[in-house]
Amino acid sequence: MENFYIFLGMVVVSLVSGNPTVEVSSCPGGSVLLSCSCKMRDLSEPFRWQMANNKEPVSVLREGEENLTEDFKGRVESFYKENPSNCSILLKNVTYIHHGIYTCYYRSGTFIYTSVNLHVYGATNDTQPTNCSSPVDYIISPTANKEMHWLISIPIMLGLLLLFLFLYRKVQGRANERQRAQIHRSVV
């Protein structure tokens, strides 16, 4: 039963500390900011961006060194040199191959990550907005997703708390029954 409580605690911690995916959009030929605030990161450890679709690193940045895959050469601008707690990258001249989920990884005691889902208009069977004729940056605020994350997490945490209390009372009830049975046996 103790293992169950450890598992339950791990589930609650992962729900509370989970990072929501930020949604961003761009027209082909546009530029888009893939945001990653990495305050308190361990500067002796590299941070990296990775695209989930092909498991190849979009950009691996460490001490001014940039290793980029062919699809991203000349298209990625980083900001960490000016501000070490800004691990964001600006992806320029976006094409359909850039459509997908990107993740920023860095170490701050433990590994921390931020995911960004880049939607390139036209990469799927959607219609492009009329203003796609000129490169325009589209960014949906990450705070909107964080607020939604907490709205979803609170009922889950309350449900888990109620489950924990129910199980705790059940275990306590069994312990009390055993104690009463022992007392009854010793009296008889």
From TrEMBL:
GO molecular function list: signaling receptor binding
Secretion signal, residue range per the UniProt entry: 1-18
Every Ig-like domain range: 20-117
Single Gene Ontology BP annotation: T cell receptor signaling pathway
Pfam families xref list: V-set
Subcellular localization, as worded in the UniProt entry: Membrane
Cellular compartments per GO CC: external side of plasma membrane
UniProt keyword terms in alphabetical order: Immunoglobulin domain, Membrane, Signal, Transmembrane, Transmembrane helix
PROSITE patterns membership: IG_LIKE
Transmembrane segments: 148-168
Top-level taxon in the UniProt lineage: Eukaryota
InterPro entries with a match to the protein in the record: Ig-like_dom, Ig-like_dom_sf, Ig-like_fold, Ig_V-set, IgSF_BTN/MOG
Name of this protein: Ig-like domain-containing protein
Native organism taxonomy: Eukaryota, Metazoa, Chordata, Craniata, Vertebrata
